[in-house]
Amino acid sequence: MFELPKLPYDYNALEPWIDEMTMTIHHTKHHQGYTDNFNKAIAGTPFESKTVEEILGNLNAVPEGIRNAVRNNGGGFYNHDLFWKMMGTGKGGQPNGNLGEALNGKFGSFEKFVEQFSASAMGRFGSGWAWLVSNNGNLEIISTANQDSPISEGKKVLLGIDVWEHSYYLKYQNRRAEYVKAWWNVVNWDFAESALR
């Protein structure tokens, strides 16, 4: 049985960029729902004993009858677990070390990376995510629909932003661009740096 991970900070820790009510509902309702439905989908199957990474990393092995439920809810469980860790209080700024160098090398500058990543987040039609991933050691910015996860494509997640409306609508309504801009103030570059290794 998978359990809802605890937030690594209080619900109000990301204020004023991400409001307490949104964090509370996002974690206790949305993430809890993905967790519960993921557990229901794999109940009584051999997948109960596997890690979420093993399951999502090989969706073709999941029986067709439960594959969509596993893809959607397992993805929601996994993506949100990462999302909470990718943010923090007193974060933001720019990455240092290997990640900072890698971003400059790939995108030309940190500012250009932010511009391209934000464009990916804004360009996702409907619900989904924008991600910075490592694809066999190469940095890429990608976008996935719904709760699809890059690990299902064999890619390693370094950073991601949730652009489902439930992640920003209480504070920003339909102003996704404002949410994306605000989100850079809470990015936990330490997480992304550690994931790069």
Protein topology:
Elements: H1 20-42, H2 52-56, H3 64-85, H4 97-107, H5 110-123, E1 128-135, E2 138-145, E3 156-162, H6 169-172, H7 176-183, H8 189-196
Antiparallel strand pairs: 1-2, 1-3
Helix pairs in contact: 1-3
Give the count of structural domains.
Answer: 2
Decide which structural class fits the backbone.
mainly alpha
Task: Please report the number of helical segments.
Answer: 8
Low-confidence stretches: none
Beta-strand percentage? 5-15%
Could you tell me the number of beta strands? 3
CATH superfamily of the largest domain: Iron/manganese superoxide dismutase, C-terminal domain
Q: CA-to-CA gap between the ends? A: 29 Å
* Average pLDDT over all residues: 97
The ordered H/E elements are HHHHHEEEHHH
Describe the structure.
This protein has 197 residues and is mainly α. It has two domains: 20-85, Fe,Mn superoxide dismutase (SOD) domain (Helix Hairpins, Orthogonal Bundle), CATH 1.10.287.990; 97-196, Iron/manganese superoxide dismutase, C-terminal domain (minor pseudopilin epsh fold, 3-Layer(bab) Sandwich). Helices cover 48% and strands 12% of the residues. The protein contains eight helices and three strands; from the N terminus they run αααααβββααα. It has a three-stranded antiparallel sheet with strand order 2-1-3, sandwiched between helices. α1 (20-42) packs antiparallel against α3 (64-85). It is globular. The two termini are 29 Å apart. The model has no long low-confidence stretch (mean pLDDT 97).
